[in-house]
Amino acid sequence: MKISIPSIEERKLKLERLRKIILRKEVLINKALMDDLGKSHFETYLTEVGFVIEEINFVVKNLESWAKPKKVSTPMNLFPASSYIHPSPYGEVLIMSPWNYPFQLCIAPMIGALAAGNRVVLKPSELAPNTAKVLREIIEEAYKPNEVRIVEGGVAETQELLKQKFDYIFFTGSTAVGKIVMKAAAEHLTPVTLELGGKSPCIIDETADIDLAAKRIAWGKFLNAGQTCVAPDYVLVPKKYQHEFLERLNFHLKNFYGDSPAGSPDFPRIINEKHFDRLEELLIPEKIAVGGEKSRVNKFISPTVMKDISWSDKIMEDEIFGPILPVLPYEDLNEALEEVAKRSRPLAFYVFSEDSKKAKAIMREMSFGGGCINDTLMHLANPNLPFGGIGGSGMGSYHGKKSFETFSHMKSVLIQKTKVDIPLRYPPYNGKLSWLKLFLR
Ligand code: NAD
């Protein structure tokens, strides 16, 4: 089948056009994210607009070299041939996104898909309708429907969409829906990337700088009111430091959001009442060490920390995905790590330690999508680090060059010469085996 492939120049123009329109519509994007999630303009720039602008700049700068056919070496027995890998587009790509970073999680994968020369069908989340509306405006201004098409709708519409044949499906969302997507993709043998969620642990060891750990964990957990796929889901802390850790968390949370986080312009809201109710059920009043204020009408739960949590508490069953942080005190680090390793492999994993040898050994031995030593979330800020999960937290990855590779089929081409034609491979084979063994040994 012959497919029309946009030139590298055309792809760059598509991305530059997108950047221009996003920057022009920044006020509308800010308002949409404020209306959908109560997100401050600072957080919107940091995690949505600024993030995708950086990604566009990085991709435009490097696209030429990534997209070039790459010559690879050719073994002697194929002499005088030469060999190349041609990154080529899949064709039509379906990108489906969740509501928590409703702008970034539509645009960032789309950047990779367009850079690789694909056409895109974009399905934003129905739970962030204001952002979906701005996305439609941007897409319809930037692209013809045969370049990027936006399809809005809920579960029924998505299931209809999944019945159609695409050449690649890129899904970001829950593990449960990830399974539905993969089943639908299997019907057409469509390859998938699944960017899913799960419970991302955060381990503090005995050598850690407790104050700095508390500050960086508080930031990573309560950004976007905890509705971040790579947010620390729970913290394991040495029992003797639990008190100090809670005290430092309280201190930093007061510095971040004041005495009354409900009045802070920097603290977002829960996406909807259903999620508010789900989160409220996870609270154990007698274990609340920090926060615990809530208001269903305002979809608000203050940054809340629960202490003395054990593995059997309900909050340790599923991904929390909200502003509640359980702290589990431990006596023995190895036992704590074994408990983590028994569970589904996390999307992110964080270690706080001043013993860099030990921290690196833990990172090497545990299985997870990606993570940081002495920080949270920041591995996503480096476009040279592929972002994705493993096992229950997903498959495949993207960001930067990895996005380009994810949305490209690596086509192999061998170019043979016609001036010589070595007869060894042709029948009759009689008497040729020993020669063959000289080449293939
Ligand atoms: P979700 O799985 O409910 O929804 C994601 C998308 O799937 C939406 O577009 C929605 O319309 C569609 N969908 C929902 N139910 C469906 C069904 N039954 N059949 C077909 N399509 C359906 O996820 P969400 O609640 O929007 O987002 C939260 C989840 O996403 C969390 O688990 C979080 O960890 C994960 N997440 C992962 C990443 C990542 O990069 N790995 C990023 C953000 C969020």
From TrEMBL:
GO biological process terms on file: aldehyde metabolic process
Catalytic center residues: 195, 229
Tell me which domain of life the UniProt entry assigns to the organism this sequence originates from. Bacteria
Per UniProt, the keywords (alphabetical) are: NAD, Oxidoreductase
* Domain spans labelled Aldehyde dehydrogenase: 7-413
GO CC annotation, single:
cytoplasm
Q: Which Pfam families match?
A: Aldedh (PF00171)
Gene Ontology MF terms in the entry: aldehyde dehydrogenase (NAD+) activity
Regions crossing the membrane = none
Q: What is this protein called?
A: Aldehyde dehydrogenase
UniProt source species? Peredibacter starrii
